[in-house]
Amino acid sequence: MAGRINKVIELLESGQPVYQVGSHTGNVLTYEAGLEAASTWADFVNVGMEHGAFDMPGLDQFMRGLIDGGPTKSGHRTPTVIVEAPVEGSSAEVVRANAWQFRQILARGVHGVFLTHAESPDAVREFVEICRYPFHKQGVGEGLGAGRRGVGSESAAAPVWGLSINDYLEKADVWPLNPNGELVLGVKMENFRAASNADAIVEIPGISLVEWGSGDMVVSFGYKLSEAYPPPPEAAAARDRIMAACRRKGLAYLDGSQPENVIEKLDAGALLGGGNEEAAKIGRAHTGRTMPV
């Protein structure tokens, strides 16, 4: 039996990398797709709503399929599900005006949210506050204001986690700021403005994961997407700055991987998010992982 609801948290607490599957242009969000994804080789499913459809009925059905197809071989009720929200993290005002997106996504019972193009510390702070209930106090007055998430969705989300409403309300908080929390909040630093603010962004309490977006980062410096691999010097320097900021704060840094470079990236400090099953097999053997898929 798993020790946590959120498999990603359980792995990160044990110092193990995590591996993802999913599409930036949108996953197939049906009950049948959830049944199939329940036995995925990956540790978490990244649901791309930045470029894919903002499909809440589909996400509802997908989560139900995961439950009925589970539990996972690792004993978790479902794989972790993290949704990329459409809004960009360009300013606190933009994020606040789109708070409805995070509330709708969290109400489906997912385990985390990514804020894309997270380039402003104030936007990231707003993101964290929107995703927290006001009665969770860790970090409040120490870099965060009170939470802004309202009650009402817990009756829908709690059954997805297999919890009572009261237990869901207690556990639906951000890890590792709240050690008992089961939500992960990720920021995607994927343009030159985000990279220049990386040191300030990682200081915002409540962030669990940081990912650099290689394609968007390269394009933000004025290159074509076809010039992204290997990244040009400016983009590589931005990546290194983001990784160094994560290392300094002890935050999980996510990067893509392939079988030929997964060991190199792990040894450099990445706690991967790459969507390649063979790379995941190599990486898990390299880090001596014992938790079943």
Descriptive notes:
- This protein is an alpha/beta fold and about 290 residues long.
- The chain has helices spanning about 5-15, 30-35, 55-70, 90-95, 100-105, 120-130, 155-160, 165-170, 190-195, 200, 215-220, 235-250, 260-265, 275-285; strands spanning about 20-25, 45-50, 80-90, 110-115, 185-190, 210, 250-255.
- It contains 14 helices and seven strands.
- Helices cover about 40% and strands about 10% of the residues.
- The chain has a seven-stranded parallel β-sheet with strand order 1-2-3-4-5-6-7, with helices on both faces.
- The relative contact order is 0.14.
- It has a single domain (about 5-285), classed as TIM Barrel (Alpha-Beta Barrel), CATH 3.20.20.
Structure annotation, total helices: 14
Evaluate the radius of gyration: 18 Å
Strand content: 5-15%
* CATH level 1 class label: Alpha Beta
N- to C-terminal distance: 13 Å
Extract low-pLDDT stretches.
none
Determine the fraction of residues in helical runs and give it as a percent range.
Answer: 25-40%
| Tally of distinct domains | 1
Strand order across the largest sheet: 1-2-3-4-5-6-7
- According to CATH, what is the topology? TIM Barrel
Can you tell me the overall shape? Answer: globular
CATH superfamily: Phosphoenolpyruvate-binding domains
Q: Could you tell me the mean pLDDT?
A: 95
* CATH architecture identity: Alpha-Beta Barrel
Largest sheet: 7 strands, parallel
Which structural class do you get from the secondary structure elements? alpha/beta
- How many beta-strand elements? 7
Give me the strand/helix succession: HEHEHEHHEHHHEHHEHHEHH
Q: So what's the oligomer here?
A: single chain
